[in-house]
Design a protein that fits this description.
The protein is mainly beta. It has one domain: YVTN repeat-like/Quinoprotein amine dehydrogenase (Methylamine Dehydrogenase, Chain H). Helix content is about 5%, strand content about 45%. The protein contains 2 helices and 25 strands. A 5-stranded mixed beta sheet has the order 1-18-17-16-15, with no helix packed on it. The relative contact order is 0.14.
Length: about 325
């Protein structure tokens, strides 16, 4: 399915949608030396796990003291993190592997990537190499993690579909099951200065409140500028182990790279658009006013208790980058 989305004035928006927007500032900034690609809230340990892409580690942010605790080191830039429903397993998706042999021409080996599975209760870890950078990870209600990698390079000696969507079962035996082959892209390392993780992997994942629907947004184009109008949205049903995809052409671009899902997957905020699904078909339900489409600034989160969306969607020329709180029904 192909959809073309256009920006509409906020006054018109109010006539057709349940969105109403107002600004708010809240929270406390915890400085992290690096670039954070993804976060996972660990309510049992009262910490936030933050994937520090440039530092090759996952920061452990203590919520009560707002300080950094001992981080988890990983062998590659961490591009995504996800915590299992029982808070025992932390999966860290990793981008490209440093290659000392190629340091003179390219410090990162092409077509590499992987993940690290941390058993936080048993204090164990498992490092796994894959043949492509990991773009997104998310746990479902069954305790298994969905892992999306960039489409691997075609092997001339072994042509054919190349699986890049996997299901990881962390317990009792670690198994990785191939799910599907979906054409998605990401940018090779290294990149020019002032490029951030969401401009590199250009993918994000979220799960519904009941854990039965995982939604991933990823890039359709190899786009170093992080301005492409093309993207793809995937919906994975945990119950049926099936995946559906929709391709989008968006104006402005689909930024920020952020996805948030409601309690059961009926509604999903993708970048600056709220989609309502009827029989699996996405309906453009509402749009944020005047988004600038930048991939690297902004985010959204669904407050399931209050049925609100908290979103930071900057507009062109917006230097304050203020948060907006958006009720949804």
């Amino acid at each position: 399915m192909l959809a073309v989305r256009f920006r509409i004035p906020c006054g018109v928006l109010g006539l057709f949608s349940a969105f109403s927007c107002w600004g708010a500032s809240f929270g406390t900034v915890v400085p992290i030396n690096g670039t954070v690609a993804d976060i996972a809230l660990d309510e049992r340990r009262q910490v936030v796990w933050a994937a520090n892409f440039g530092a090759y580690r996952v920061e452990q942010v203590d919520i009560a003291s707002r300080t950094l605790l001992t981080p988890l080191s990983v062998p590659m830039p961490p591009s995504a993190v996800a915590l299992s429903p029982n808070r025992r397993f932390l999966v860290v998706g990793e981008y490209q592997k440093p290659d000392p042999v190629l340091l003179s021409t390219n410090p990162f080996a092409p077509e590499t990537g992987g993940y690290t599975l941390f058993d936080l209760d048993a204090n164990l870890r498992y490092d796994v190499n894959l043949n492509s950078p990991v773009l997104a990870v998310a746990f479902g209600s069954d305790g298994n993690a969905l892992i999306l990698t960039r489409t691997p390079a075609v092997d001339p000696q072994n042509p054919g579909p190349l699986t890049n969507l996997f299901l990881l079962q962390p317990f009792p035996y670690q198994t990785l099951t191939a799910i599907a082959s979906i054409t998605v892209q990401g940018v090779d390392l290294p990149v020019p200065l002032a490029h951030f993780p969401t401009q590199i992997g250009q993918a994000t994942a979220s799960v519904s409140g009941d854990g039965n629907m995982i939604v991933i947004q990823a890039a359709s184009d190899n786009d170093l500028s992080a301005t492409s109008a093309n993207s793809i949205v995937m919906r994975y049903s945990v119950a049926t182990h099936t995946i559906t995809t929709q391709g989008w052409i968006s104006k402005p671009s689909d930024g920020p790279r952020s996805v948030s899902v409601d309690a059961d997957g009926t509604n999903t905020l993708v970048a600056w658009t709220l989609y309502h699904y009827i029989n699996g078909v996405p309906i453009d339900w509402a749009q944020m006013p005047a988004p600038d489409g930048a991939f690297n600034v902004g985010s959204g989160a669904w407050d399931l208790t209050r049925n609100l969306i908290y979103a930071q969607i900057p507009a062109p020329g917006d230097t304050s980058r203020s948060s907006r709180r958006t009720p949804a029904r």
